[in-house]
Write a structure and sequence with these properties.
It is built from ten helices and eight strands. It is of the alpha+beta class. Among the domains are: 25-118, no CATH class; 123-228, Band 7 domain (Tetrahydropterin Synthase, Chain A), CATH 3.30.479.
Length: 318
């Protein structure tokens, strides 16, 4: 019992580690940070080089103006943002929706504007393992993965707080509802239909959030160990039953064919002679066999004589 529990614990840890390593990377790729650094440090370094090369007395007013210019330049540089080809930036100005920008270079007003980048590629979202009881009261653990993409950035950010978390929770609830209304046999055999049904229900709900479900896949259906053993015995018995039925049907077909062949040979005496010759030919191929042949007509004469004797004996008795 302890060994079984430790094995189950090890399997759960392995699944968790697999999911951990399979997590996607961060959604936003900061492409503008390097550009901002270059544009900021070029004039600063040029000013420093000018002061060092001149070796002259520098007017404090000039230094103050230069410092203010550097600060303003830094603020101006921070308005530059770069969105990747698969990203869109939703701009909020003083908390209100302003516009959607990207991909490529964009300018954001300092202080008053806030930009949030959204990945518009197809994304994979893990559906954690759910403990479900089927319609025929069989416990099962089911997990899956959901593939979706953002088609309306404005709705995905404004209408829902965290669309990934919301999709995950809604998909888990739908998965439990669908699987809970099925029997164990339907759960194991109708996986494609279950996936399509869950995907359709989730898509109907989240399309109001500007998100489209590409597909959903059930990764694993885990059953109790004792139930697995019983199913294995049932499958073994089913295979043995099929083998017995197949053998009986083969014997039946063979017997039917033999009866048809016997009737055909009875109607054509020559075919019986040919069959006899084929049998003799098969026996004569071995040197250890001795075959004695006699004319087939002799057997017909013997049969005629036997029939005449029977008739004579019947007349004598009468």
């Amino acid at each position: 019992m302890e060994q079984k529990e430790s094995q189950n614990t090890a399997n759960d840890v392995l699944r968790d580690l697999t999911k951990l390593f399979a997590k996607p990377v961060g959604s936003h790729v900061s492409l503008g940070s390097a550009l901002r650094r270059v544009l900021f440090w070029i004039p600063v370094l040029a000013l420093c080089c000018f002061v060092i090369i001149s070796k002259l007395y520098v007017n404090p007013l000039f230094m103050t103006q230069s410092l203010i210019g550097v600060i303003l330049w830094g603020v101006a540089i921070n308005t530059i943002r770069v969105a990747a080809q698969w990203e869109r930036g939703i701009v909020l100005r003083l908390g209100k929706f302003c516009s959607i920008k990207g991909p490529g270079l964009m300018f954001i007003a300092p202080v008053v504007d806030y930009v949030q980048f959204v990945d518009t590629r197809i994304q994979a979202l893990n559906i954690p393992r759910q403990k479900v009881i089927t319609r025929d009261n069989v416990p099962a653990d089911v997990d899956g993965v959901l593939f979706f993409l953002v088609v309306d950035v404005e709705k995905a950010i404004i209408k829902i707080q965290d669309f990934k978390f919301a999709i995950s929770q809604y998909a888990q609830a739908v998965l439990r509802d669908i699987v809970g209304g099925l029997s164990l046999d339907d759960l194991l055999t109708e996986r494609e239909h279950i996936q399509q049904q869950i995907g359709k229900i989730v898509d109907e709900r989240i399309k109001e959030w500007g998100i489209h479900v590409d597909s959903i896949r059930l990764l694993d259906i885990d059953l109790p160990e004792d139930l697995k053993k019983m199913m294995s015995r049932q499958a073994s018995a089913e295979r043995e039953k099929r083998a017995t039925i197949t053998k009986a049907e083969g014997d039946k077909l063979a017997a039917t064919s033999l009866v048809e062949a016997a009737l055909m040979m009875q109607k054509s005496p020559g075919s019986m002679h040919l069959r006899t010759l084929q049998t003799i030919d098969g026996l004569g191929s071995s040197s250890s066999n001795t075959v004695l042949l006699f004319p087939a007509e002799l057997s017909e004469i013997v049969k005629s004589i036997g029939g005449a004797i029977n008739k004579d004996s019947g007349g004598v008795r009468s």
